Write a sequence for this structure.
């Protein structure tokens, strides 16, 4: 799990001024399962509660302030992300 200001700013593709390149999300670079962004106090408590109950990280995309990687479009559509 990632969090903090740096993770919040890098949760999407972004331009890296120092390297003069567009970089992908920090979720790919860090190989993390999920990212908590913004004011994450409530999100972290919800993630902890779900992990304790055995829910996988890929099923936590409905928590506000949490980002997960979807590897295939059909997974995104099944999660309600594509209409």
């Amino acid at each position: 799990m990632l969090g903090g200001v740096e993770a919040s700013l890098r949760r999407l593709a972004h331009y890296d001024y120092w390297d003069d390149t567009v970089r992908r999300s920090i979720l790919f670079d860090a190989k993390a399962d999920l990212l908590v962004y913004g004011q994450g106090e409530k999100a972290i408590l919800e993630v902890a509660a779900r992990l304790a109950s055995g829910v996988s990280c890929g099923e936590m995309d409905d928590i506000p302030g949490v980002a997960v990687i979807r590897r295939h479009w059909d997974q995104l559509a099944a999660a309600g992300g594509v209409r």
